[in-house]
Amino acid sequence: MITSPLHRLPRRALAIATCALLLQACGGGGSDDAGTPVANNPTITGVTPDRLSYGRLSTFTITGTNLASGVTFTAPGCDGVAVKAGGSATQQEITCTPNQALSVRLTASSGGAEFYSGPQQVVPKPRVTMTTTMGTIVIELEPAVVKLTVDNFLAYANAGFYNGTIFHRVVPGFVVQGGGFTGVAGTTLTAQAGARAAIALETNKGLSNTRGTIAMARTTAFDSATSQFFFNSVDNLFLNYQNAASPGYAVFGRIVSDLAVIDAMSAVATRTVAANVYENVPVTNIVVQTAAQTL
Questions:
Q1: Which domains does the chain have, with CATH numbers?
Q2: Read out DSSP for 173-241?
Q3: Nearest Cα to Cα of residue 228 among 134, 130, 162, 274
Q4: pLDDT of 178-237, one tens digit each?
Q5: Smallest Cα–Cα separation from 266: which of 290, 231, 235, 236?
């Protein structure tokens, strides 16, 4: 008797070989007519942000396979995640707004199971560029520490509120203050219209009134800051939080370029406008030409 080669195969291999010889589908499915496995699970092969900017809408372009439906995206560190219309199975775009965490990590799920968790992507600290008649200043802000104060300042800056205002108080060896007035009118100062509601005081957060920092001006009432700010031209540590009765002034950023502009402002001639009301007002107006978020 002649033994077929198939008879010498192990039982499992024999079954597989027999299926192949008979061209029969022996269960399992998951193949197309050509016998190529079909993968229906979504995959992500790339995630590219167009920009990441604190408090501003950012877009992520996502590439992969089977992304057209049934895929949900989350982005810890980014608020208001939304999928843009017009995506395809191989490319989707989502939008969201980075928050005070200053980092974003994209995740994706299908059928309730997470299949992608991307790396943490760093969001730069926001910066405001302020151009003045004495030079340009770049200010880096600290939303992870004093979010309320930073958001307040950015709201004014991005609305154009500071454009055309003056630095109305310059005290050498102390501070340069602005953000509330547009000029001198007789014996008073003209207030800039459109001030927002006062905010709560954010001090005792680890930020200090050192040279080059920016802080919110306020009245003797602790929670009274609106639009006015000041730059510390020297270390003013006595303006920091001391205790509950003397909570200090809220620092929310620092000058990263160009501190020499503040030094130049500190040297200008000043005067008093109305007796004992507005002191240390520059004789020649120092005007904020533009102030807006640039990062």
A1: 43-122 (2.60.40.10), 127-293 (2.40.100.10)
A2: TTEEEESSEEEEETTEEEEPS-----B----SSS----TTEEEE---SSTT-B-S-EEEESS--GGGS-
A3: 162
A4: 999 999 998 899 999 999 999 999 999 999 999 999 999 999 999 999 999 999 999 999
A5: 231
